[in-house]
## 1
Amino acid sequence: MSSTRQRTTAVPKRKQCGCINHEQFAARRQFHLFAVSGIKRRLSYKKLVVRKLITTRNKYVCSLCLHYSDRNLTSATEGATRSATRRSDTAPLPKDGNDTDEAVELLQEPTETPADNPFPHDRHKTDTTPLTPTTIADEEGEAAEENILSGIRNCKDNLKEIVGMRKWEEFRPEQQRALSDIADLLGSIISRDIFNDSKSQLSSYEVPASVIPWLKERNSMLVNFMTATTCTSLDEDMPAKKANGLAHLVEQTLYVQNLQSVTPFAFQRNVVQYSVTGSKLATNLLGTWEPAGAYTTIQKFINREVDAPKCPAGDVHIAIDNEQKVGKTSGRIMVDSKVPVDVCTTLSYIQSPRPTTLQNNEELKPSKWQIRDTDTLPLLIRDIQQQEANAKEEFRRYREAYIEDTIQRVLKEQKEDEFTGKQQDYVDTALNQQFLNLNNNVCRTCNHVFPISAGLQNCPNCGHNSRQHQHNFDPYHRTSSCVPSKPSSVKVGEPCMVNPNTRATVKQVLTHVREQSKTGEANQRKWTIVCADAVPYLLGTQLQEVVYICTVCSEQVNVDMREAHSNEHSARQPVTFTKMFGDMLFRPGPGHIELNMARTLLKFLWEPLLSRLVKLLGFRTGRAQDVVRNGIDHHRSRQILTSLLEALSCELVVPFVRREIEKKCRPHAKSFMEMVGNDANDPTYMFIWHVAFTLLLSFHLYTEAIRKNNHKRMMAARSAFAPVFYGTHHPRYQQLHAREMLDRVQCPPEISLYMAETESFSKSGRQNAGQGADFVHEETNAFVKSFLPPGRISAEVWKRVCRKADTLQKMKESCRQTAGISNENNPKRHKRFDNEVTMMRREVRGNGLLSMPIITDSQSERSIPKGLSSATLDAELPDMIHKMEENYKQYMSRLAETSKFGGVKMNYVYVTAEDRQLGEQIERKTKAEIKLELSRLIAEFPISCDQTVLSELKDEVRRLKDSDTKSRCVELYHDLKGQLEQVLAECASVDDGSIAPGDEEDENN
């Protein structure tokens, strides 16, 4: 017989607080229930155990019992005894000039009955009547409400009396405890409201808020207590830093009440910290200290799905550029392993604050006016030459004004030496310091010598600051500003997940741009402007010329296949073709042009000047020098070139200024230009003159014009510097310059004016903070990239972050404003490089490069230009500007004749003799050039040589075909050159009377 056990369902025990006084402490009030196992170390819990209000067997205790664990009330039966004991033990306060009997009675324990007490729900009362569940809400009628209001007013009046009597530290301990009980009571009144407020923040913390309105929406008792404690007032004129601190206090109060809360300003701080550091640890730490959310909270916020951004209405520049995200490797070696890289093309919509609607006019589409054939190109080239001639005249005026400023500055530096009677300046003092092996600073203003100190910036004698300009100094003051007073609008567009480095990918990107900007759609813009760097710009303009769309079948047709495609359609159907990208006007990025101008100058001037100077600037290792030479850091490159311009320009005018002082004449720029044009003949002086006042000055003017959005000065700098691209090996920027100049001279006047007004954009509205659209887009790319998670990311993450970019930017700006950090509209203090310029001038003067502008025939050692390095410079360097301009003319002439860009053999400028030797190697020449060299070698054979051998050599050269390889031509060149050298050697030995090797036998006979 099997026994069965009856199963009964156990009734779950109800979780409840184990405190004896729970009904009195927490009657009819909401509370949190804590497990005893998690709060054993709390002092409040230990107090309950010591006072035997709870046993260690109890598993739960409420928050209110813990909060009032240190109160004197223990049970309802003990209340009367303890209350009477405290009343009898309390002695009256000693009277003085500031105390009253009423104040003494107020600070003692209350003894009123429940009928007299306006707070029947008070948990701290100590009369003998047990606490009842009666609450304020249970009382009816206006009498109860008036009773409450009367009690509050009486309490307020009494507290006002006490506050006016003493400071906190003047109260006795028992009085301080009584006041603390009052504060504790007030805090318990708003505790629940604060908790509910902390929960309500979870639905609104993502929306950027203003500090003052947000504080006014919080509990008024809490905010008023904090404003009174911090001696502040909550009004719109409240300083930003104080308002931020007050908001921080309120946020921390909400956080202590509810550890799960997230408040808007703390969340903003965490988002900005994540964008700056990219650290998961730092984000989680801040989320632990403040109600700022954890790393996962921020990632969910960033990756939350939002709508795709829309292109704004009106005229817009759409800047495109590729952006890379390098992923993390596995950390182990692998066969054929590669670093994971994600590449996409990002878009930015940039608008000038001056609204225009030219892009809604279909008659202004580039396909309507970009007509270039063999008939129109010569006229366009002539217009370009005329425009550049006017621009160069503007550059000459700017150069003359710059030289005049330099002469006056150098003139002020000159002081007559009391012993020698010669003119001296602070550079001579620096040379003497170097000769004595002393490393001291020399003030350029007062010629005072003082030791170098890391913390000493100002001259001890005159107070001149050698490292920073004054706050209101504008480094581009020579050019007037055309920057609008309002900042330009910049919005992030939808990215395209390809790399624009081929025709196929650029076509895909441009199609994406058309879709996002809604170009060509009904009631939308008819054309748009696309700004890019060199590679996408050139590929886009080439696609614009060669890719057409058939109007009948909408098929893409190459320019050479249009006739064949027309034959595929019926003869009854008229077939026309339109340019696929005829609704886009391409503009090269001014920032990338400036960047490549700097890189060209760094490489061109490296051997003559910079290799020595860069070492003295601290770049001593080969890798560090390569970083400078390749222009990796553009800000550093600009600083080096600007300092070099100032140093060379001053040293160039020093001999002239001192000569004029000796002649007791007033030096000025016009007489200096006459001296250079008529008398100066030193190759080194003329080479450095062209370097300083043409190459470096045009780069400086271009930088200045972009910062000021000055179209006239910008074109002057471009026209002066453009031949440098044609004198050095820069085929991309040779074609880029020619294509852009064709657009500028051919576009309608409305577009020409619009382009002149939008050479650069200022995101801050500062009058000297303009940037090219490409550099504005670079900043946007960096901002977007700062919010991407580490490692490789998907296309969806790219898109979500780009879509969220505007919200993140607003959040960052809101965080800056609430923190009281000065915004970008405030002028910054620009750096000055007095010590670096002094070092460069000292090196140039110490090597005697510019000491003699005029040399005589007897000074043959100065017939070849010299530099600061030991490399031998090319003898034709002083004529470099002429050669560069001739190359430019040759390039444009061929373009006018053939309608093709490039294909011109340039006569490049060689910097050193070694460069010329390498450049003239036969292996570097084309087959046509090698054939010309073969003909030249044939012509160099002397008449006395064996004519039969010479005829064979001529026949062998004639037998060369176009199909023969270049290596065959090079081999024949070396054979012919060897035989020529042998024949010339034999002829020389016969002239000397010696016996040629083949004539020994005839001589013996």
## 2
Amino acid sequence: MFWEEHQDCSNVIQDGWTDLSEEPLGWGGYLKRTKNCKSALQRWHNKTFRRADYQIFNLNEELQQLLNVDTVEFGSNWERIQDLRNQIDSLRRQEGLYWAQRSRIKWLQYGDRNSRFFHASTVQRRDRNKLFRLKDNEGVWVEGQQEVEDLVLEHYKEVYKSGGSEGVLDCLQHGLKSPATCTSLSPELQFSPKLLPFPALVALTQTTHTFSASEGFITAVAQMVSPKHLLATLESVLLSASPPTAAQRVELLHAIRSSLHSFQSLLSYPPPKPSDRSQVQSKSVRLPDSSPISLDDQDVQIALKLSDDLHLNEVDCVRLLVSANQEWGLMGREPLEILRLAAGLWYTERRDLITSLHLLLRAVVLDQGLEDDILVDIQKYLEDLINSGLRQRLISLIKELNREEPSGLGGPQCERYVLDSRGSLVERQAVVSRERLILGHCLVLSILVVRTSPKDVKDLFAVLKDSASEVSESMTTVKSQITFSLLFALVIAFVSDGLSTVPDKAPVLSSNTSFRHEFHELVMATGNDQIVEGFIGGIRLAWVVHLMLIQDGVAARETVSSGSSNEMGYVSQCLEVIFSSNVFQFFLDKVLRTAAYQTEDEDMIYMYNAYLHKLISCFLFNPLARDKIKESKERIMSVLSPYRVVGSHDFAQDINSSSLHGTETGPLPFNSILDFVSEIYQKEPELLSGNDVLWTFVNFAGEEHTNFQTLVAFLNMLSTLASSQEGASKVYELLQGKAFRSIGWSTLFECLTIYDEKFKQSLQTTGAMLPEIQEGDAKALVAYLNVLKKVVENGNPIEKKNWFPDIEPLFKLLSYENVPPYLKGALRNAIATFIHVSPVLKDSIWTYLEQYDLPVVIGPDVQNSPSMGTQVYDMQFELNEIEARREQYPSTISFLNLINALIAEERDLTDRGKRFIYDHVFGPFPQRAYTDPCEKWQLVGACLQHFHMILSMYDIKDEDYEGVVDQSRFSTTKESSPLQTQLPVLELMKDFMSGKTAFRNIMSILLPGVNSILAERSSQIYGQHLEKAVQLSLEIIILVLEKDLLLSDYWRPLYQLLIDNISRPPPNVTHLLLKFDVDTPVERTVLQPKFYYSCMKVILDILEKLLKPDVNALLHEFGFQLLYELCVDPLTCVPTMDLLSNKKYQFFIKHLDTIGIAPLPKRNSNQPLRISSLHQRAWLLKLLAVELHTGDISSSKHREACQTILSYLFGQGVTEIGGGRAMSPFSLQDTSENAAIRTVSKSK
């Protein structure tokens, strides 16, 4: 050890041993001297040795400074440089020896300086040890739990077969000697190599030992890493924001290597066994790592029921019951609840295991910023795992778990529900379906680690057909996502294998000619189920791209064979079927645009889109596919009716012409391809970078449009391609130049101007009707405006300032009644993107809005702008009579978003449409009907965003409170003050606090509860908008509470909300607003309102200050009532009582000194205030009774709180409350000095 090399070490030991020379030399004296030596050495170490790593760092800094100086100075500093190097070498040696000693690794020589390794092994020693295998005296490795146990027992029988305790005591009587030199020890007990249990001890990397004494022998039990510990280890290393430490790396490698068998036999558990069933029925079961366990009749029944329901070994079911008792405590629970808890624990173990596998695969496939050496180790581990049969196990599990039997979804006699880790009741089928989905994700990721074999592809294809047929019967979210994972597993397999035909990679499928013939016959077979056929069509698309890539590789090698010519026929045959069945439209309708796809895991969606990008790029690059697309375009141009060209850029269309002809049988393939490309790049615009193939296709697709359907589809594709800065610049140049004969920016602005002139002419003509905008024209304009929006939104910040100098045409159609609402919505959405282009444009937008749009919304009397002659209606009419009847609200939503974008840029508190938003949009939104639920929550979200901004803009002052309080309590007039007119925030807060429209609507958003919101968020397309509305609602509640600490009389509805929801299933609105931990069981929360802002902090602050008791009496009353209700609720009682008894708050004594002794108001002067004051005292006394009756006296803070309360109530005196000290009535002596202390004052 490195202490021995220091000259003072022996003196410190000698002094520590002889300091207690008067102690006898018996066992007690030996222990005292040893302890004294240890303390002396520790003091000496702390004084003599400092942290070597800090000293090394400082010395290195000085050394580098000296090495970087000029040559002349370098020579003069040479001696100092040598001295620094010697010090650094010495400190490094000292550090290495220190960690070598700490690690207890004896077989490393002191010359090894790998301190990181020593440190890692030291940290590992803190965990429990375990033995995996041992080598016997003959050098043979022994594995298995029972075999290792028997070997250990036999070894120690031999070692300890003779006595020797007297020899040990005799040795100790001779003072401090090395045990190895004590000749009085028996040979078996001398510290020699024989005492080491075995010649070699291997436990992978982290080895520790668990021994239990039984009948005089030592038993060694080998254990595997539990799934819970495995998952926690992986999350701490793979998901951490900081690089893993050396100890974490060692722990990670040990954890995954120890779990190798669990992954190889994934979710494979011992089945029921007659002998084990008989053992359980005998009511005495011996688990592998414990003494025999006695069972009662109920335990036996539950264990056997678990075995029958889960197809699990009976002894393992007893282990589950033991674990459930340790986790939850089963005393007093019903048998059904115990059954569900144990089953839930088993499913949690399974979920932890497959989630761990998923994390490992994600770490290799997705770039998570891990260091290369860790990735190499994990990848090699996964490759071996997959090559040993993991992928086949994944495919089998996805199929087997879908069966209605105990080992899968559960049979008809099985219990349908389990209790999860939060104690929530969940359906077993939902848990198993989620397992299948994670396994599907693992399957997709595994294909990118090790390429698929022909057998894997065939098995995957068979499972996909089964899963697709299940989706056709009932299309639930999770079932669809499982089917998507199987679909994309095959898509990725074909595309990645086809792309690997380049010389530096080795394909698997592409080199197997017989497989291609077999699979082509398989994939071209047709069926009757349209959904199944649709998914098979998706596989056909991936298959034809695979064949195309093979042909490209063959052409590159210039070796054309008869087999490759046959495969050319396969390509033509596939293309014909793909276009005839319009596979692209099926992908859009049943995959990409579904809620199941859009609510899928973000990383999985990115991977799916990335391979769809590769798929469509390869498809568009192939000449055969391009010819087929050209043929499809010519066909759609001939089938659909052309629009009549009146002018060079006129969209006017004959009203009798049927522009929608040809859509009765569904969209045609050319339009579907355009939409398909748009959908792929909508979420991942970065995939567009450097994609020359796609831009070549854009130039081809934009030529010769003779109908609105293809024009709209093409413009929609352009809007998607403009989602990146590079794409926005290309699209702008494309439409600014003359690449297309009739498509360009000039077409858009000239068309808007032409329609404005037509509307003006009709208004100037007496009795003339406003012209109608044809649906085709309107849709084309909407598509143009969407392109404009994307180009301005994503364009280069400097370049786009000069792109569109005159934007007034965008405003001119906003004030006309006959303009379709969805066109107005597109106009305002495009206008909103110009706000951030430049301050000049923002001011222009306000000017144009006041001229064209705002008079329609709030009327010209509120604004100073003159009344417009073009105004023929108001926006209330459009909302209530046009949009409400159509149940679609694009114009109103766009107006809200535009106003929000404008006021976010400046502190504007005037009523520029705010009253319209409050009275006519948000107020009646629950009563309106909505064709698209997304529009409903977009509308609500825009209103809430508006309220949130105006609440954040203005800090309410005391004079504002006084005005509102005086008017609300004493004034009978309904007229608004000038202050309220200028500050809509006050109107909003008055409404909210008095429980009117705004408050009721916000509560209606929150009341469905967390579980309902979670379900809709993960299964509906509108879930993201709903989540935003809920978040804004909670933020508004916090904002209002934060601003209004005085205007108390309006708080009644909010307190009532908190009180009424306490007993709802957790987690509920009360738990969320009061900052209980909703991610773990609520009863384990540690409330810290001083550190985290919440409603609880506001309530405690109000009760502490008790401002304006005549005005805030009801507020104080509800505060005490709320705290009492929290203290008697089973879930919130412990956290709340721990908080109130905390010394930081002194809640009980403070309020006994205020509420408890305050004089009551006179009966005649203010009877309501008197009643409220009595109620406050009643709630406070109830709180005191709860604390005295149920406070945990074993806890010091509760014990001190109860003593303080009793001391105060019995008049024993309380001193230094702020310091936390109080006299107990039971600790005072009956002396004359304490007589005054026991005197109870009259007021108290």
